[in-house]
Amino acid sequence: MNIEPVPGGPGTVAPRAPEPLSRRSRASALLTLAVRHPAVVPTGAVVLAVLIGAAIVLAAGLNPISAYSAVLAGALDLENLDYTFSVWALICGMALAAAIPLRMGEFNLGGNGQMVLGGLAAAFIAGQLDLPSILLIPLAVVAAGVVAGAFGAISAPLSTRYGIPIIISTLLLSPVAVAIVSYLLRFQLGEAGSAVAQTERFPDSAHMWALGSLSYSNMGLILIIVLMALFWLVDSRSAVGFELRVIGANRRFASYGGVRVGRLAFGAMAASGAVAGVVGAIIVLSPPYRLVDGALLSPGYTFAGLAAALLAGGRPAFVPLTAALFTILQVGGGGMERSADVPRQLSDVLQGVVIIVLALRTIVDSRRTGRSATS
Amino acid sequence: MNVFEWGFVAAVLLAATPILYSSLAGALSSQVGVFNIALEGQMLWGAFAAVAGSFYTGSAWAGVLIAVVTTALFSVTLAVGSARWGADPIVIAIGTNLFALGITGFLMRVLFDVSGTFSPRGLQGLDKMSFLAEIPVLGPVFAGQTALVPLAFVFIVVIGLWLKLTPSGLRLRGVGEHPEAASSLGIKVASYQMWVTIAGGALCGIAGAQLSLGNVTVFTENMTAGRGWIAVAAVMLVMGRPLWLPVACLGFGAAEALGFRLQGIGAPQQLTDAAPYAITIAVLVGMRMWVTARNRRPSLSAQPVPLPSQPESTS
């Protein structure tokens, strides 16, 4: 069930020729190193997926070049860039929530539940407390992180004590949280007399601070960038980050080497859930400044983020880039539909194809190393 | 609201059937050691293929056949990728679920030029077993159902007994139980995994067809709406043992049917939405605690550790 969390990570690159190299073999060694560069696999997967997507568009009797250029134009048009960045922040956040457990070889499939609980906590603070903005917004975001983090952390003891894998417990707990929040919105916290299950509009003091005159991107974008930077720092510069990757590489070895697996898993799942919760808070504290039933889940940020994290192999340096790719697909899909008359569902198709191609990279590995991949 | 009426039993069966087929697929996969979370996407594809097949051929059963065949083909990626090439079935499944969601919506636009819902005039749904209508108990329960509903139980019993009682079933279970041991007895582990996963795809095709041509006669975007995940929960709840699936699936089906009725009278439906998942996680934790407690007992009473038995001669 564990994926290789660090393709081409420490230990896999082995220049194993100590004798002086001829020019030719040195060139091939360099080539091997270049091919083994961690960016090669995701790039190759994206290129292949783009080609497969083009084939699908062609087969449908449409023009792939105009489809792709419409995607790029739709997402990267100067007028849309503000909106694109706001979506990027959310997908990047969910990618981060997926990437943290991925570092220890675990999947967090419960992003939906964690995000919605975070949104609920933020909405509760924003709607109930009468505080100045400078206190209210940080309090709402922190509350979201704490609630969602605690919820995410449940999966760690369930795994280490009860032997229920994290992927299964997150998968099962998430719909429960979604249902609870939906229930509360419809019957307890919802705005009276509204046909839609939603909270009342929050007071102005609970509106996430704007970034200059931008209408979509707000301080949430900065917050996500800070969290990304923090993840990069912890992952590459701290013992905790190293130990997390050791767990991913070999759990029993990590345990033998003195890594406290249970504790670290708890911390990682708490951090993962907290980030998802913060994403929920950012959505809720942005227009329309309400918690609306189902509105957090319908754009599919969780699985877009998961896909981005998988494509990045959980590497902090790659996550913003892969998240940007999936953001462009998601935001540009609408533009493609309008200007090139290609259904926007092509975006989902491409997301899926990228992940399938990425997963099937093992076909290359098994050919190259000549080992049989059968278990 | 009367729960104890035949109409409610019929509603439970209707809700349970797609989950029965798809969870059987998941249970078979889990028996050969493949964690299959691609059920949602495969069922969605099956639902689309069934409607498209019925639309083009004018026959609902041809639609079912097309759904079965194409969904089996759809699952080849997962089957071959995970069994032959050692790819991670979870990652492939995440990819194929996204792909299924996208491609069904895409094809609906390209082929039929509609978005959201596809229900052309004259689309053939599966025949109901109305010849049963006169019979006392069977009538109200089964007369409004398709033949796929009772067939699900036949499938489950036959496959469950096959796994339990036959040599080939034993081999299949051995593949999941201990791949190395199975392999050392000459069982082709990868082949078993591959073909079982493809057969699971065919079952998900039936599940989808029942959903789009049996329960209703329409295809809507993302119409599986989490049923594949409920099937995954059912598989975990029964620990992959097919013969227990009816219990889990009828329970989950009852939750769904009850949810519909609650929604009808304005009561919270969310409770029944969450029930399958909450029950599954509670049972998993509870069983684990029970097993731990049971294992602790002998050591407390300081029983002698039994000597390792003689190695059994394997035929």
From TrEMBL, chain A:
CDD domains per record:
TM_PBP1_transp_TpRbsC_like
Task: List the molecular function annotations (GO) for this entry.
Answer: transmembrane transporter activity
Q: Give the region (Disordered) as residue ranges.
A: 1-21
Q: Which domain of life is it from?
A: Bacteria
- InterPro entries noted in UniProt: ABC_transp_permease
Keywords of this entry = Cell membrane, Membrane, Transmembrane, Transmembrane helix
For membrane topology, the record states:
Multi-pass membrane protein
Q: Where does it localize?
A: Cell membrane
| Membrane-spanning segments | 39-63, 83-102, 135-154, 166-186, 206-234, 261-285
**Coarse class of the protein's main subcellular location:** membrane
Q: Name one GO cellular component term.
A: plasma membrane
Cite the Pfam families for this sequence. Answer: BPD_transp_2
Q: What is this protein called?
A: Nucleoside ABC transporter membrane protein
Lineage runs: Bacteria, Bacillati, Actinomycetota, Actinomycetes, Micrococcales
UniProtKB/TrEMBL annotation, chain B:
Record key words, sorted: Cell membrane, Membrane, Transmembrane, Transmembrane helix
Any keyword Transmembrane? yes
Chief location of this protein within or outside the cell = membrane
Q: Does the keyword Ribonucleoprotein apply?
A: no
Cited InterPro entries: ABC_transp_permease
Spell out where the chain crosses the membrane: 6-27, 61-83, 90-112, 137-163, 229-254, 274-291
Location relative to the cell: Cell membrane
- GO terms under cellular component: plasma membrane
Which GO MF term does the entry hold, naming one?
Answer: transmembrane transporter activity
**What is the topology of this protein in the membrane according to its UniProt annotation?**
Multi-pass membrane protein
Protein name per its UniProtKB record: Nucleoside ABC transporter membrane protein
- Organism whose genome encodes this protein: Glaciihabitans tibetensis
